[in-house]
């Protein structure tokens, strides 16, 4: 912590030089972001929207020099996005409302929408800063306008649309940990412009080749290789002055080495029952796995084929949007159809040690389509938004595990998984009534009905004790075996989400607002069950009720402060728990309360020096406990006294941006310091330590030119950042701890034209 602050102060002294040119950080950041969160067709400034929202437009992303969506999430108080145990899977956590598992059939708590289309799983959620127009992070339940599974909030991602002016953007980026491992190289480009009268198009291409930041201490080779290819195309046609058609296509392909799991010592350094301490020190960036070669230590044969990589993901998606301006209410009809198909296969070293103990293999398939038809119009002093939504999801998941028993050369090989189909429809209406010139009342409701059906096979119903590790393969997604379906079930749910609020425009520069809302997280079936009796029944819906009071205030033309105070009440809180036999059970376990305060804003200290800040405080506690959270066999005060998982009490970041003229060039400098308190897992047996990181960026561009050269450092203090931490009862491992990259130093060259 001290070294991080010392580095911050040292670098601060470098960038505080006087600036004399016009294009400053203030010029880039002062451009207000138009938001889509309210689903109105009129232009709305983020400061005029009475919800807690962090919105970042294209110019802000360029100024702040972020690499991907997980970096941008740190700008929002009480928000976090990090990968979890399954490669290619990441979930947002907002205001402590977080999922605790990568099980495909367990719905997220924060909904991610890309160009208006909802992604029903956490698979494929991390987006690089490529071809993005804006990102909006909405904090708190958003059930009325966004639907189900937004009990913590929603993230709205908008890609760039075709333009009627020919322009392009080309980028080349390379970085490295300078530790003798592989380099990370990215090349991307976007070209857009008119194709015919009223018709414009866009083509975007992205390629990333990551040679692997880590060194595998088992064999000394680089580890963490990753290859990503993205192709995006779009056509926009103004059929008339009032009608527009927009079609967008994306192809995503990823191949990599999969999980970076570290087995480290317990947080209190106590030995495990077998006397082991774990292989590595917590907080260090050491890593080792015995799973190498095309099948990670397995002989080629049943359940193991020659693979170039250990993680593969393919995604195809199509979005078709129609907008029609109508005379009724001077309004707009919008229809958004979306289709997405995802396929994943992966192998992972779950124990995170250089000793063969717990390898796993599996896959996921998700195909979904949705359609939203909505209308927005204004009638006198009332804005009306109403619509109908439908979602159809088909998913399949499979898990194959090999567990070494009691440290002996005996293995339990097991396989399980299944399918789940769901249909959801909803109808919603929201009104904003301007009672006076300064007071607005808002009210909205959404009725949702959902039906899910499942067919699955429990892991423990297909297990074999034998002398070697082997992936059996059920055949749901991977493998050529056949598992007998031992559970077929279905259930349906219906609910009413609502939001009511009042807004008072105190002045042209200040707004006070308050609201009360209710949202729901869908019920589900567990596709990674181990035949625990309770896992044969579905998990019920989770309900989230919130009271929020907020302030948005431009104190002067140089200082902005936004504040929000909230109380969240969770009923039938969903949790996935890991039992002593490594089975994962899903249940409604408790009632909980989250109470917090959020501050964010910016200050233009001078015409060339800008401060950004975001502070989140959150106090989470259980109010009632109905399940054995710590797996000790009883439900008692010990369970009630546990800390809520993945809920930091304090998060904050401070950034400085500075511009100065050097001859005929502009030098833009950026520092970003981020802190997040330590957080616990479900049963509090493991924790992710506090995180303090420092990012720096220096960008040079001609005052009159079309290129930019950037030098940057990410996590320059080389802090060990864990994506999750779970204690597992294995002979050679203390914790399952996902590990992110340490220090990275790199450069990016950008050329743009129009």
Describe the structure.
The strands form 6 sheets. The protein has a 22-stranded antiparallel barrel. The chain starts with a helix and ends with a strand. Residues 1-23, 271-277 and 293-309 have low confidence and may be disordered. The protein is mainly beta. The protein contains 6 helices and 37 strands.
What characteristic shape results from the CA principal axes? Answer: globular
Radius of gyration from the alpha-carbon trace, in angstroms: 26 Å
Mean pLDDT: 85
| Strand segment count | 37
Low-confidence stretches: 1-23, 271-277, 293-309
Summarize the amount of helix as a percent range: under 10%
| End-to-end CA span | 45 Å
User: Strand-residue fraction?
Assistant: over 45%
Instruction: Outline the biggest β-sheet.
Output: 22 strands, antiparallel, barrel
Number of helices: 6
Structural class: mainly beta
Q: What topology emerges from the helices and strands here?
A:
Layout: H1 2-15, H2 25-29, E1 53-57, H3 58-64, H4 69-73, E2 79-83, E3 90-94, E4 110-114, E5 117-119, E6 132-139, H5 143-146, E7 153-159, E8 167-176, E9 184-196, E10 199-210, E11 214-215, E12 222-223, E13 226-238, E14 243-256, E15 261-262, E16 311-326, E17 331-349, E18 359-379, E19 382-404, E20 411-434, E21 439-457, E22 463-466, E23 487-505, E24 510-521, E25 542-554, E26 559-578, E27 584-604, E28 609-625, H6 637-640, E29 650-662, E30 665-676, E31 679-680, E32 687-688, E33 691-702, E34 707-714, E35 722-726, E36 736-739, E37 744-753
Parallel strand pairs: 4-7
Antiparallel strand pairs: 1-6, 2-3, 4-5, 6-7, 8-9, 8-37, 9-10, 10-13, 11-12, 13-14, 14-16, 15-36, 16-17, 17-18, 18-19, 19-20, 20-21, 20-22, 21-23, 23-24, 24-25, 25-26, 26-27, 27-28, 28-29, 29-30, 30-33, 31-32, 33-34, 34-37, 35-36
